[in-house]
Amino acid sequence: MMSYQEQVTGIAIELEEILDLDDLEAKVYLNLLRAGPITASALAKELDIDRARMYRTVDKLVSRNIISTTLSSPKLCIAADPHDALKIALGKKEDEVNKIKKSGEAIIDKINNEISTSQVSTVPTFRVVQGRQNIYADIAHLIENSTGITYIATTLDDISRMYHSTIPEKISICEKNGGQVRLLVDMTDPKLAPFVKRFNATETRIGKLPSKGRMVVQMDKKMIMSDSAASSHNSNADADFSLCTNSSEMVDNIFTLCSFLWDASKPLKTIDVKQYVRKTKS
Fold first, then answer.
1. What is the largest CA-CA distance in the chain?
2. 68 Cβ contact list (under 8 Å, min separation 6)
3. 238-258 burial by CB neighbour count: b if 16+ within 10 A, else e?
4. Where, residue-wise, is CATH 3.30.870.10 in the chain?
5. Model pTM greater than 0.85?
C-alpha cells in the first residue's frame, strides 16, 4: 500500500501535466489545499524553499488564477478550488487551439497562394525533440495517422503521464482507420494493472524491456525513441529528449526488436504477476 507521501507525489506528477505546472508549483498548490490560507513566507519554511523563489512562484500562480492572495497584512495565499483550476486550464488550452486554427488556416492560404511547395524529398530525416509535451504531441500525431501496427514500449510512469495527453484519443482514431496500437510495459505490481488498462491500447502485454526509455514505432513509417529520460526518477519535463526519424533501416530494426519483445511477453489479461516477478528475479 502506498504511503501518504507517495500518493501526494503521484498526484503532483499528474497535476504537472494537467495544469501545466512545474514541480514546485504543483507542490505549492497541493500544500495550500492541505494547509488552507497561509503566508508565502510560512509556506516557504514548510517546504524548505528560498523565500524569494517562493514569492516568484506565488506571483506566477496568482497571475494564472491557480491561487489568490488576500488584502490583509500579511497577505495570505489561498488555493483555487480544483474544479475551478481545471476549468481555467481547459479554457487556456481551448483559446490556444482556437488561435492556432485561425492563424494556421490563414498562413496556409498564404503559403499555397504565394510560395511554391512542389519540392518532395525522399531523403531520411532526423529530429531531436525536446520537452515531454512536444514528444507526446509527436507520438499522438504518429498514432492518429497510422493504419497499421504501432508499438509503444515504455515505463509504467511514462504511460501514466501519456494517459493525460491526447494519445488515448488518437488510439481510438487509429483503430477506426484499421490500425492497432500494441502497448508493451514492464509492470511488477498487480495493483497497478488498472492504470495500464485505462490507457485503452488495442492490446497490452507485460514484458521485460531492454531499458527505462521509450520506443514508439509505426510499421514501415516512423519511430520516436528516447533513452532513460522517461524514467520515473526524472520529473523535469523539459529534460526529456527523443529522436524522431523516418529512416527505413532504423524503423525496421526497432520494429523488429519490438516484435521480438512482444512475442516474448505475456498478455495483461492472463498474466500471473506473482509468477512474472519470480521469473524476472531469477
1. 66
2. 62, 77, 78, 80
3. eebbbebbbbeebbeebbeeb
4. 126-281
5. no
Interval 266-275: pLDDT, tens = 888 644 444 4
The cell for 65 is 488564477
The residues, ordered by sequence, that sit 6+ positions from 261 with a Cβ below 8 Å of its Cβ are 153, 184, 207, 208, 209, 210
- Side chain identity at 132, as an amino acid letter? R
| CATH 1.10.760.10 is the classification of domain 4-82 | no
Q: Which CATH architecture has domain 126-281?
A: 2-Layer Sandwich (3.30)
Cβ partners under 8 Å of residue 58, min gap 6: 28, 40, 43, 67, 69, 77
Backbone angles phi, psi at 153, to 5 degrees: -115, 115
pLDDT in tens, 221-269: 999 998 764 444 445 667 788 999 999 999 999 999 999 999 999 888 6
Q: Which three cell numbers stand for residue 129?
A: 525533440
- Domain(s) labelled CATH 1.10.10.10 in the chain stretch across 4-82
- The contacts of residue 111 (CB under 8 Å, 6+ apart) are 117
C-alpha distance from residue 251 to each of 12, 128, 223 (Å): 35, 16, 6
Instruction: Report yes or no: 223 and 217 within 8 Å, Cβ to Cβ.
Output: yes
Q: Which three cell numbers stand for residue 142?
A: 504518429
The owner of cell 510499421 is: 219
